[in-house]
Amino acid sequence: MTYKHTKTLDRSKDFILPCRKDQLDAIKDFLPIDKPDFDGSFSTYQLLYGSTGNRIYLLGLGEEKHSVQLENTFQKVAFETKKYWDKTIQVYAEDLNEDEIRKAVIGLEMAQYEIGEFKSKKEKSKHTSVTFASNKSIKKILDEGKYTGETINKIKALVDAPPNIKTPEFLGNWSEKSSKEANYKCTVLKHKQLEKQGFDAVLSVGKGSVNKPVVIINEYNGKSSKKVDIALVGKGITFDSGGLSIKPSTNLHYMKSDMGGAAVVLGVVELVAKLKLKINIVGIVCSAENAVDAESYRPGDVINSYSGKTIEIIDTDAEGRLVLADGLSYAVKKIKPEYLIDLATLTGSVVRTLGYYAAGMFTNNENMAKTTSDLGYKVHERVWPLPMFEDYESDLHSDVADIRNFSGNPLAGATNAAKFLEAFTEDHKNWMHLDIAGVSFGSSPYAKMKSASGYGIQLITEFIKSKASK
C-alpha cells in the first residue's frame, strides 16, 4: 500500500469514516442517511452507499480505552473488505490525533499480510493507495506507520516460515539483505568464526543439525559517538525438537516459531534504521536448530560458554537459554551497552502463568520495568513483572559445573530460566529479559491455524524512541 495526505475529503469517492462509540453526531454531515444501524462499538463496521454509489465504511473506534488497540479495527475492516476496494480509498482523519493516525496506518498495512506464501496457487495482491484527509501535517506519521506495519508483516513472515526454509543461514541472509536496504551494518558469524571466538553454547545446541548455527550482529549508529545505547539479544532457534530430551509430537510442527525473539530483534533494528532515530543500537541473534543426531549434545554433558562459565546440561530442551547466554555474554564483554534487553520464546511456564495476554518481564531495574510496562499499555503489547529473588538461585546449583541449565523443579520455570540468564549478564544494572512465549505465536482471526502475532516490534521500538536523542 501507499499512503498519501490531502486536506479535503472527496465525498464522491470511497472512504472510511471512523467514529467513537455513541458519537455519530460528530460525523452526521458525512452520512447519506439519518440513522444508520451503527453505534461505533470497537472493531465493528457498516457499509453505506453515498449519492454517487460510492462506498462509505463506518468504522467503530469504541471507547477511549480502545485507543491503544486502534490498529486492530483498521486491520479488520481492511482485511475483510479490501477485495471490494478500487485502486484508491480515503480515510477521514480530521478527528484522529497523530498517534491514532499512525495506528490506523499500521492496521491497514498489517491487513496486507499473506500467510499462504508457500501455496502453489496464490491470489494476486492488489495495490491500493490510501489517502488520509486531515488539515494536520501528517506526512512523517504516515511514513512511520507504514514502516512499522511493513516490519511487523516481515517478522510475522519469518516466524510463520517452515523450518526447512528458515534455517540459521536463512536468517543470516535475510539480515544481510535487510542491512543493505535499510542502511545498517550486518555481520554474520559462521561455524569456524563461532569456534574461534568461543560461542561454545551456541555450537553445542546446533551440533545435532546439518544446518549449522550462526550469530548475527546488526549495528545501527544514529549518533556520532561510539557508545552503544541499547543492545538487543534474540533467541533464534529455527526449529526445536527438544534435542535428545525430545518433545512430544503433539504441536511439534509449531516449534518453527521458536525464533520469535530473534525475529523481533531483526525487525526492530531494520525499523529503527528506517526511522533514522538518533541512537546507537546493536542487535544480536544467536541462531541454531535443536535437532536429534548422533552428534547431539546430551543430558549430563558439561559444555563451555562464551562467558567462560561451564554449564551442566540437565535437559537439552532448555536450549534457548544456552544460546542467549552466549549472546548476553558477548553483549556485556564486547558491546558494553547502557541498556541490555533479551527476548525469547523461552518457557511454557510463562504461558501457564500469564496466558496469552502479556509477556513475562524480568529485571531488577525498577525504572526500566516501569518504562516498559507503561509503553506496553500504550501499544497494547503488555508485559507483567515476575520475581527475580535470590532464593531461586539454589535451583541452578551444579556439583560438576558452574551452573546447570535446568532445575527439574516443575514450579517457577520462567523465573529459573531468567535467573540462569542473569548469571551471564555480569550484574548489568540495566538488563531486562522478556519471555514472549505466550504472545509471539498463537490463535488469530486471520488464520485457521496458530500463527505469528508480530508482538514486540512496537514495544521495543517505543522503548528505543524513549531513549533516543531528540
Automatic annotation (TrEMBL):
Keywords: Aminopeptidase, Cytoplasm, Hydrolase, Manganese, Metal-binding, Protease. InterPro entries: Leucine_aapep/pepB, Macro_dom-like, Peptidase_M17_C, Peptidase_M17_leu_NH2_pept. Its main location: cytoplasm. It holds the Pfam family Peptidase_M17. It catalyses: Release of an N-terminal amino acid, Xaa-|-Yaa-, in which Xaa is preferably Leu, but may be other amino acids including Pro although not Arg or Lys, and Yaa may be Pro. Amino acid amides and methyl esters are also readily hydrolyzed, but rates on arylamides are exceedingly low; Release of an N-terminal amino acid, preferentially leucine, but not glutamic or aspartic acids. Mn(2+) 2 binds at K235, D240, D258, E319. The active site is at K247, R321. Its cofactor is Mn(2+). The keyword Protease applies. Binds 2 manganese ions per subunit. It is an enzyme of class 3 (hydrolase). Residues 156-460 form the Cytosol aminopeptidase domain. Belongs to the peptidase M17 family. Presumably involved in the processing and regular turnover of intracellular proteins. Catalyzes the removal of unsubstituted N-terminal amino acids from various peptides. This is Probable cytosol aminopeptidase. The lineage of its organism: Bacteria, Pseudomonadati, Bacteroidota, Flavobacteriia, Flavobacteriales.
